[in-house]
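Risk register update: the risk of archive-format incompatibility is retired. Evidence:
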Amino acid sequence: MLEAKITKLDGNLDAQGLRFAIVVSRFNSFITERLLAAAVDALERAGATKEDVVVVHVPGAFELPIISKKLAASGKFDALVAIGCVLRGETAHYDYVCSETSRGLQLAQMDTGVPVMFCVLTCDSLEQAIDRAGLKGGNKGFEAGLGAIEMARLARKLGGGARAQSAARSSGDSADGGASGNKRRKK
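Archived output:
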């Protein structure tokens, strides 16, 4: 009875017409390149073309947030995937890198309104990373690619994303249907 009154919004897995950026850490590239290949595979299987996907490499996971934020703020992409792999070592460096990378990526999506999928493996061992990059645990890159599609579609349903807002600004419209412009004109 109650279910009939509830509005349900979902993103679908159709990547046609969407643009994606994938930011990939070069550090631990034997893992991150497998994640990248799987993310691209997911996007292409869902209808994205090679022209719809831009791949940017950065030195390490710590550099993912700044480039992700710049790409998201550009207004050219519907969603991003941030790919990295941080393996626990003998010092606290692992904790700082993991914490600040996740915080920075969250801020990038919150500040821009563009979904940023977190595909940064934070593993205690190389074996755990290998398992998550295509062996026992599936491939987290593929999952992140699907998540990017779904979140891009959902963001569009809820009022656009950076690309829709950018197009609206350039055409003189606003993402709020012109309400903000009307407020400025009325006195």
